[in-house]
Prior knowledge:
The protein is α+β, with helices and mostly antiparallel strands. The chain is built from 2 helices and 6 strands, in the order E-H-E-H-E-E-E-E. The protein is globular and about 30 Å long.
Amino acid sequence: MTALDTIVVFTADGCPHCRALCEDFNRRGVDYREINLSREPLEMARLQDLVWEHRLPVVADHERVSIGFRGQSSSFADLGLE
């Protein structure tokens, strides 16, 4: 991550929890960079450097990484990423 990427959100097409998280951030005016793994599959290596779980969404905010949104997440298998 660079200094400009204060918050990075890893998402994928078809993930309702990813969509809900991004909608929440947009509604609250949170600045973030979205990395959609369905469209940028090479970024999977970057995500795997941060977490070992195969679930989305993932939010990386400097050293802090969280998985899911409001207690919900989608597996990579459910999203066709495995």
